[in-house]
Amino acid sequence: MSSPARLDPAPTADAHVAAAYDEHDRERWVPEPPKRVDAPVRAPFERDRARVVHAASSRRLAAKTQVMGPQADDFVRNRLTHSLEVAQVARDLARALGCHPDIAETAALAHDLGHPPFGHNGEAVLAELAQPCGGFEGNAQTLRLLTRLEAKSFDADGASAGLNLTRATLDACTKYPWARADAPAPAGVHGDGSPRVVVKFGVYDDDLPAFAWLRAGVGDGVGDARRQCVEAQVMDLADDVAYSVHDVEDGIVAGRIDLTTLEPELPAIWATVREWYAPGAADADLDEVFAGLRAVGSWPRAPYDGSRRALAALKNLTSDLVGRFCGSVQAATFAAGVDGPPVRHRADIVVPERTALEITVLKGIAAHLVMRADDRIALMGRQRELLAELVGALAERGPDALERPFADDWAAAADDAARLRVVVDQVASLTDGSAHAWWRRLCGPGSGARTGA
């Protein structure tokens, strides 16, 4: 049996990696004075990471749906634990490849900040309701949080600059570096099983000035204007790897997946893979890829029984799979050759076709055995109704029903579209639990609302 691939450090020291980023990369939208002489000395990208860690939006991720709701079980992942795991994978991979680990880790920590209550299911509701104000997209909302909604810095005109992160870090947080008007049509499904009905883009029209600043120089001999920087590519891959491996792990512990008895179900699983992720994948190719995964030394040979030994074996499997995927990407990227330091827009990571298909197979297993469960589909329908009613109630009641920062935004809004954006910002900030609480207060029995469930 082959041993899992290992991430080897790139032949470059941390100081050399940091030197590959210039003052343009370290610049902030609002210039900041030097810190006190008695304050801890931290590099700019370290400060970026700390600001995201301490952001209110990061804390709220602990109560937002990943795949199964945060209340479903003490073991399953929520958006915060998922983000921490993505950050660990991204940091290790960035260090191995030779780009800045702090930038990749911060992008991973921030990548889900803009997700509303109920995950991609909630995103689809807000995208439909926000059509009059330019739509809704979780990644565009992340950029809005980082550059506007999170309270840290203000510019000379008194406008919020959000966390005022460096240009390189903001660029790494931009998974879809284009506006809604330039977005491709949605296709396929999300990792949580909900269909991709939301147009994927990275910036709302009223946040374009910040976007133009963070992308300054891109497309002017520095890279394609729509291309992710390499640190964003690392974050994106880390997210994919974590999703594929950890959703299977959660499904095993929840009793929905048994990796030792999958063979009779493989034809149905492969049909789900084609329907959701890889339309052209043939059964023979998927069978071969699955056989390769089963050959991993830590693949289980007995059903999961909840014992400490079984838990340890499951953790070893997830570790080996993450190492396998990231190690193959590291090897392929190095084999492709990089002219100069692999930073910003001077390099791309290479994901081998076989590795991409292995990740897809794991996603298909979780999709078929977890995401399509009837109880989950019914729950998603109730969540959509709740968010739609909550948006309607807040739009009708206005600033008196909003938290102070959003009430201030409402007062400054110039028209109905801008006021709707404020309502969407407020609802997107809520956790799963607070969305239920707000609905009960504003829409539920005894609230005086004209609508209710």
How would you describe the overall organization of this protein?
The structure is a single chain. With 453 residues, the protein is an all-alpha fold. Among the domains are: 233-375, no CATH class; 378-453, no CATH class. 54% of the residues lie in helices and 0% in strands. It has 19 helices and no strands. It has helices at residues 14-19, 23-26, 44-53, 56-60, 79-97, 101-110, 119-129, 138-149, 167-172, 208-214, 230-253, 266-276, 283-294, 308-336, 353-371, 374-397, 404-412, 416-429, 432-442. Helix 12 (266-276) packs across helix 15 (353-371) and helix 16 (374-397) crosses helix 19 (432-442). The protein starts with 13 loop residues before the first helix and ends in an 11-residue tail after the last helix.
The biggest beta sheet, please?
A: none
Helix content: 40-55%
Beta-strand residue fraction: under 5%
Q: What is the distance, rounded to the nearest whole angstrom, between the alpha carbons of the first and last residues?
A: 56 Å
Q: What characteristic shape results from the CA principal axes?
A: globular
What's the rounded overall pLDDT mean? 89
Oligomer: single chain
Q: How many alpha or pi helices? A: 19
Which stretches are poorly predicted, pLDDT < 50 over at least 5 residues? 68-72
Question: Structural class of the secondary elements?
Answer: mainly alpha
Order of helices and strands: HHHHHHHHHHHHHHHHHHH
Indicate the radius of gyration in whole angstroms.
Answer: 22 Å
The counted number of beta strands is 0
